Amino acid sequence: MPKLSLDELKAKALTIRKHIIRITTEAASGHPSSSLSATDFVTALYFGGFMKFDPKNPGDPDRDRFILSKGHACPVLYSAMCEAGYFPFEDIMTLRKLGSPYEGHPNMRRLKGIEASTGSLGQGLSLGVGHALAGRLDKRNYRVFVMMGDGEMGEGQVWEAAAAACKYKLGNLTAIVDQNGYQQTGATRDVLDMGNFQTKLEAFGWATQTINGNTMEDVVQALDCAVTVTDRPTAIVSQTKKGFGILPILEQEGDLNYHGKPLTPALAKKAMELLG
Amino acid sequence: MYAGEISGLKLGKATRDAFGDTLKELGAELPNLVTVDGDVGNSTRTELFALAYPERGFNVGIAESNMVSVAGGLASCGKIPVVASFACFLMDNAFDQIRMSVAFPQTNVKLVGTHAGISIGEDGPSQMGIEDVALACSLPGLIVCVPSDAACTKAATRALITHKGPTYLRVGRGKVADLYPGGLKFELGKAIETRPGSDITVIANGLMVAAAVDAATILAKENVSVRVLDLHTIKPVDREAIAKAARETGAIVVAEEHLHHGGLGSVVAQVVGETHPVPMGFVNVGDLYAESGDPQGLLDKYGLTSENVAQRVRETLARKAR
Q1: Residues A236, A38 contacting (CB under 8 angstroms)
Q2: Which residues of A touch B76 (CB under 8 A)?
Q3: What is the pLDDT of residues B93-118, one digit of tens each?
């Protein structure tokens, strides 16, 4: 359970961003922009002292759980877990290749440490409710973190789960909405405007904060606050930019969504320079 | 007249009641057993468990998608979640959740579809699970079981819940004849020879096993010897018993309370085609949605009767190579 300083966390996020670019460009497919928006948050979770985990004992029943419900962003998960010591970098370079367990969306049967097989949007929060209920039944002290996308919030099942979490007062459950503002075909506000997520989640009984999710200070502060709440579920609406870290490239390419597109090797080289 | 009556079988419990009783029994033996309900626990009979073990019974409301995925999460933490709802609301409504939170990750979730078939009766077609077996059988790694009577259901419930891996149990609303008053030897994936016979085999599951036994009784008077196989487990299917029946009796009729496509009939036909092709006939709901009505009236109108099984046997026998 590493606990890095703010500066170290920022440096770690840069490393993870570079991994994301490298592995998706090598795969010549995947979702780097959706991974980059979530990178600061995932980095803080794994390295900011908010999750207890042991890469050598991924099945520890007392571990904290992170469920990436927006499964297409798994490059950020694989990269963070790689940095945390679950697997070596050369392994995650096989992303999306035939025979590789680093599939296009997380597959818990093929990779230890992956908490849920996701990719059909909308199911992660319900799975998290299950983990949280089990933790309570077993009197275990773990916390369950579930990250969703803002487009994913259009799935009705998310709100079924939100209501159930409130009914059972799941103080050991924290949801993160990575609100990067885009989904497959355009801006989330144009495709299906869900309005204010904080207001909605609060109406469902969740203690909710809205933050700038690409500012490490904000992320750490929000998590510090969330983990103190134990009488009801907590949510963090993490306002981010899709492709954060390489925005100049997305601007230059004239596509601020850049959904499901890897960088070409030439653009990836530029991205590396940009990330330093 | 209920199926089995012609053969002198006594009307017993509904299979959903046998499931509910067994679940409650297992609650005392398995501390990790939990239920996740979509607010129909008093219909599915999971209520018996939830009342006995309130801290282990979760009612998540009328939200089947969430219900199934919550169970997936519980199973990932070592719980044995039983998720019961009407077969149509469970299997049809939450199919993707069953795919992604149960079948694909192979979580140890026990799905139970109750009120299956048209024999739910007056509530009508919107409540009739008649696609569920096809949907369940399509999912890799899911065990699919359709027991025929109370004793078979008791054994099946115990076997499925103690099995490690995802399973689907299908039970019905109304009372059915007791086929095994002397007890039965139940093994997942192994057909039961309910009646011996040599001229033709009727392979059935659910309440159609009793109709098949009646058909055997009717046809015995016509000097036709009908073997009846209770194929309670559709997946993994007992290929050996099916191939043996085809080889030894030379003709097969399949009877089930399900749509024509994708159910027991389709599964048996594949095995017969691959092993020992023989003439086959089918008794099922057909390719249609039924209507409201009293359960026995519906079974009669839509041909799920002992006499109709007997008639299909006669027709299939006529096509048998001499």
Answers
A1: no
A2: 108, 115-116, 127, 130-131, 134
A3: 999 999 999 999 999 999 999 999 99
CB contact under 8 A, A118 and B66: no
B287 CA to chain A: closest CA distance, Å? 30
Q: Is the pLDDT of residue B208 over 70?
A: yes
Name A106's Cβ contacts closer than 8 Å, sequence gap at least 6. Answer: A68, A71, A74, A77, A114, A116, A117, A118, A119
Q: Which residues of B touch A123 (CB under 8 A)?
A: 65, 69, 72, 97, 100-101
Tokens describing residue A118 = 């996701």
Positions of B marked active-site: 64
CB contact (8 A) between residue B77 and residue A128: no
CA B49 – CA B83 distance, rounded (Å): 12
| A19-41 per-position pLDDT tens digit | 999 999 999 999 999 999 999 99
Residue from the list B56, B73, B75 with its beta carbon closest to the beta carbon of A128 = B73
Q: Which amino acid is located at A57 in the chain?
A: N
Candidate from B73, B77, B96 with C-beta closest to A120: B96
Report which DSSP code applies to B263. Answer: S
Q: Nearest-CA residue of chain A relative to B109?
A: A130
- The amino acid sitting at B285 is V
**CA dihedral over B26, B29, B33, B39, signed as positive or negative:** positive
Rounded to an integer, what distance in angstroms lies between the CA atom of residue A45 and that of residue A47?
Answer: 6
Nearest to A123 by CA among B166, B94, B168, B41: B94
Contact A33, A258 (CB under 8 A): yes
pLDDT at B321 over 80: no
pLDDT at A2: 87
CA B106, distance to chain mean position in Å, is: 21
Cβ contact B65–A122 (<8 Å): yes
Query: What does the alpha-carbon distance between residue A13 and residue A44 come to, in Å, rounded to a whole number?
Result: 8
- How far off is chain B from A177, nearest CA to CA, in Å? 18
Chain A residue with CA closest to B104: the answer is A117
What pLDDT is stored for residue A1 in this prediction? Answer: 76
- From A215, A230, A193, select the one nearest A6 (Cα to Cα): A215
Give the other-Cβ count within 10 Å of B185's Cβ: 8
Helix, strand, coil percentages, rounded to 5, for chain B: 45, 20, 40
Chain-centroid distance of CA A253 in Å reads 25
With 0-12 / 13-18 / 19 or more C-beta atoms within 10 angstroms meaning exposed / middle / buried, residue B177 is buried
Beta-carbon contacts below 8 Å between A and B: 106
pLDDT class for B10, splitting at 50, 70, 90?
very high
Residue B81 C-alpha, separation from nearest chain A C-alpha, in angstroms: 10
Contact B241, B191 (CB under 8 A): yes
